[in-house]
């Protein structure tokens, strides 16, 4: 089992719809969860982070965390073509608080 | 502020050659990281440093070396380049080892070993 798993996609979503991206992790001690967006040929940029169970909203983005199920998701409302990118899930390691484990990413395509 | 600066942006090496990837940050961050990203994959940690003079191995350290003589600089050394080291290399930093802090990334170095 991979430590952080994401569906590689591509996930195709019509413009204006809700895009739902999922991530599962294996380290039960993980406390911090990050979503990064990476455009082709560019470096990752932080979209959201979450550390408490439940939902966290920031504009069109909502992160959801369920530690019991070891599951974190990112919802993008009113999807725009500019949201087309690869979304990386990152989770901190319990044994080393300042190291992150990265998923392989989900490629999201927003169709106009 | 320039943030995290990586040089060079692109490089082609021959098998067996050596080179140093440079990384500099001007944010006075204590923690610095080197990752590699292969096509269609996530980031793999090569080495990291929690402060000047302190470095440690990540998940994939073989074939690489690092040093951290100053807070600002964290160079990555490839001694004997191999085709398996063809990848995109990212340097990142955070202020301290607080788990909630996002990592700040450089623009990356695209390295091809032929």
Can you give a write-up of this model?
The complex is a heterodimer of chains A (112) and B (114). In chain A, strands 2, 4, 5, 9, 10 and 11 form a 6-stranded mixed beta sheet that branches. Chain A is an all-beta fold. Chain A has strands at 4-6, 11-14, 19-25, 33-38, 45-50, 54-58, 61-66, 71-76, 85-92, 100-102, 106-111. With 114 residues, chain B is mainly beta. Chain B has no helices and 11 strands. In chain B, strands 2, 4, 5, 6, 9, 10 and 11 form a 7-stranded mixed beta sheet that branches. A 4-stranded antiparallel beta sheet of chain B has the order 1-3-8-7, with no helix packed on it. In chain B, β4 and β5 (43-51) form a beta hairpin. The termini of chain B are far apart. The model of chain B has no long low-confidence stretch (mean pLDDT 92). Classes of the chains: A mainly beta (112), B mainly beta (114). Chains A and B meet through β5 and β9 of A and β5 of B.
Task: Report the average pLDDT across residues of chain A.
Answer: 92
Gross morphology of chain A is: globular
CA-to-CA gap between the ends of chain A?
36 Å
| Major β-sheet annotation of chain A | 6 strands, mixed
The percent range for helix content of chain B is under 10%
What proportion of the residues of chain A form beta strands (DSSP E)? over 45%
User: What is the general shape of chain B?
Assistant: globular
Please bin the fraction of helical residues of chain A: under 10%
Look at the structure and give the mean pLDDT of chain B. 92
Kindly report the oligomeric state of this protein. Answer: heterodimer
Overall structural class of chain B, as computed from helix and strand content, comes to mainly beta
Q: Helix/strand/pairing class of chain A, anyone?
A: mainly beta
Radius of gyration of chain B: 13 Å
The fraction of residues assigned to DSSP E strands of chain B is over 45%
Give unreliable regions of chain B as ranges.
Answer: none
Instruction: Report the major sheet of chain B.
Output: 7 strands, mixed
Q: Name the largest protein-protein interface in this structure.
A: A-B, 23 and 24 residues
The arrangement of helices and strands of chain B along the chain is: EEEEEEEEEEE
């Amino acid at each position: 089992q991979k430590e952080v798993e994401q569906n590689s996609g591509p996930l195709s979503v019509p413009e204006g719809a809700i895009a739902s991206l999922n991530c599962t992790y294996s380290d039960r001690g993980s406390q911090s969860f990050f979503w990064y967006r990476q455009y082709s040929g560019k470096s990752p940029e932080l979209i959201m982070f979450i550390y408490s169970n439940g939902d966290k909203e920031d504009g069109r983005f909502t992160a959801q965390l369920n530690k019991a199920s070891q599951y974190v998701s990112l919802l993008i409302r009113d999807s725009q073509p500019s949201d087309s990118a690869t979304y990386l899930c990152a989770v901190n390691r319990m044994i080393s608080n300042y190291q992150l484990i990265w998923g392989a990413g989900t490629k999201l395509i927003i169709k106009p | 502020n320039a943030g995290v600066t990586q040089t060079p942006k692109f490089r082609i090496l021959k098998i067996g050659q050596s080179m140093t990837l440079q990384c500099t940050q001007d944010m006075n961050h204590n923690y610095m990281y080197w990752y590699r990203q292969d096509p269609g994959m996530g980031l793999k940690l090569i080495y990291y440093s929690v402060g000047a003079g302190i470095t440690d191995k990540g998940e994939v350290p073989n074939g690489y070396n690092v040093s951290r003589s100053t807070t600002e600089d964290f160079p990555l050394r490839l001694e004997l380049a191999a085709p398996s080291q063809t990848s995109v290399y990212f340097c990142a930093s955070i202020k301290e080892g607080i788990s909630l802090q996002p990592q700040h990334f450089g623009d990356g170095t695209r390295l091809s070993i032929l």
